[in-house]
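Hi all, long-time lurker, first post. I run a small reading group and we've been trying to get comfortable going from sequence to structure in the token notation. Rather than ask abstract questions, I figured I'd post a concrete chain and ask someone more experienced to write out its structure so we can walk through it together at our next meeting. Sequence below, copied exactly:
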Amino acid sequence: MRGQWGLILSLVAAIIIAIFAIINVEAVPVNYLFGVANWPLILVILGSVLMGAIIAGAIGMVRIYRLQSELRRLKSAQMSSNQVSVDEAFNSEIKEKDQE
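-- Answer (accepted) --
Happy to help. Here is the structure in token form:
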């Protein structure tokens, strides 16, 4: 259900951006480091949205990578902790049998 709401909100945002971009078709000056060019405002708007999406996606991927590495670290710590517990239980059983 959460994924469906995300898809619906994304489609609504895309439609609003597309309508806004289509309304604004006049040429505007775009200042570069080495000069100036006149581009249609629709390309400037869509380019800005695309750059924002790429940056947001990159930040999200970094966050996911960090969480996955933390999960791997915690799982390995849990496994080693469980291994110690199993070893301790095994050793205590052996000691009990030796005492009998």
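A couple of things your group might point at:
The first strand starts at residue 27 and ends at 31.
The chain has one domain: 2-75.
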